[in-house]
Design goal:
With about 170 residues, the chain is mainly alpha-helical. The chain has 7 helices and no strands.
Length: about 170
């Protein structure tokens, strides 16, 4: 016997549209910045588009769909996104490649501001260089796998202790 409540299709569609519009509202920020509004209005409106309006639209969407409808949508989205989550365990080679991808942008980011003193040409680095560096850094988390996320989160927890594994020593 299925105890899942029947969710009206129109409420589900309307709530989904409200949810999507709310989460896409930050995309309007460049239009606000490029407008002729006074700077103070631009700042307030941009802030609301980033933090506030998406949350308000989410509350409205939940009110329209109801809790069962929202749970249904949330389950579908998480099931879809879960396919892109990194594997928990990765091979040693993949881990080493991921560590290089993780470390290199950080090291370059630390050295680059000081290198302009010795190499004036490093002042003229194009924007795409920084974008690629950031993409390499973010993709390193997926290459390193889920276990790395646990290690990284341990940096921010006071009571976490390192457990040595003699298998990889």
């Amino acid at each position: 016997m299925n105890k899942t409540p029947e969710i009206p299709k129109t409420k589900l569609i309307l709530g989904s549209i409200i949810l999507i519009v709310g989460f896409m509202s930050p995309l309007l920020i460049p239009l606000v910045i490029g407008s002729d509004l006074p700077v103070s209005y631009k700042n307030i409106l941009s802030g609301l588009l980033a933090f506030g309006i998406p949350e308000i639209f989410m509350i409205i969407a939940i009110a329209v769909m109801g809790k069962p409808g929202f749970e249904f949508i949330k389950e579908k989205v998480f099931r879809y996104v879960k396919r892109f989550a990194p594997a928990d365990e990765v091979s040693l080679t993949r881990y080493r490649i991921g560590l290089i991808m993780f470390s290199l942008p950080i090291i370059i980011g630390l050295i680059l501001p000081y290198s302009t003193y010795f190499l004036p040409i490093s002042k003229d680095i194009p924007l795409w260089w920084y974008l690629i560096s950031d993409m390499i850094f973010v993709s390193s988390f997926f290459v390193l796998g889920g276990d790395f996320w646990d290690k990284l989160s341990g940096l921010f927890k006071y009571h976490v202790k390192v457990v040595h594994d003699d298998k990889t020593a």
